[in-house]
Amino acid sequence: MLTFLANNIGTIIVLAVIAAVVALIIVKMRRDKKRGKSSCGADCACCPSSGMCRGNNNQHTSK
Predict the structure, then answer these.
(1) pLDDT per residue over 26-40, tens digit each?
(2) Mean pLDDT, the chain, as a whole number?
(3) Where do the domains of the chain lie?
(4) Under 8 Å CB-to-CB from 20, ≥6 apart: which residues?
(5) Contact at 8 Å (CB) between 28 and 20?
(6) In 3-state terms, what secondary structure has residue 30?
(7) Residue 22 CB-half CA count within 13 A
(8) pTM for the full predicted model
(9) 5: helix, strand or coil
(10) d(CA 42, CA 49)
């Protein structure tokens, strides 16, 4: 078992760092969702899907 760990220590460290980064991203996304923040972060006026946003209360009517 120790031989396996010694031979693969670099891979194990890289895997641990990647797993930690993914966990932090998921935690931040969950916090942002609970706070009602948008995930896109862009200007809704330029977005083709702006009518589907939850925070967009303006109803656009066609003439």
Answers:
(1) 999 999 888 877 666
(2) 80
(3) 1-35
(4) none
(5) no
(6) helix
(7) 6
(8) 0.58
(9) helix
(10) 11
